[in-house]
Amino acid sequence: MIIWSGRGILTPLILVTSVVLFISISSEEIGVYTFPISILLAGVANWILGKKWNSASGRIVVDEATGERIELKSNHTLFWIKMEYWGVLFGIIGLGQLLRLIF
């Protein structure tokens, strides 16, 4: 069961799309580096999109009973983790794998 809110479902789709596209266009010279680089690029994409979408301002409503102002804002999460944090995780994994291959 996949649990997401807002556009959080795009997180795994960005990852899979990045891996498939990068593997399909890569050459044999960089073949071993293809997977880590694609994960790293998916991390960058998730970070940028997550920051953009999660920082957007919400709609302010006023509770008639108390007069309290409340901001209604959608969060874009996958398994309760914001998209930008998935980007950090993918970036760490991709960079770690890339460094493992280099050294």
From TrEMBL:
Ranges annotated as spanning the membrane: 7-25, 31-49, 83-102
Record keywords: Membrane, Transmembrane, Transmembrane helix
Domain of life from the UniProt record: Bacteria
Protein name: Uncharacterized protein
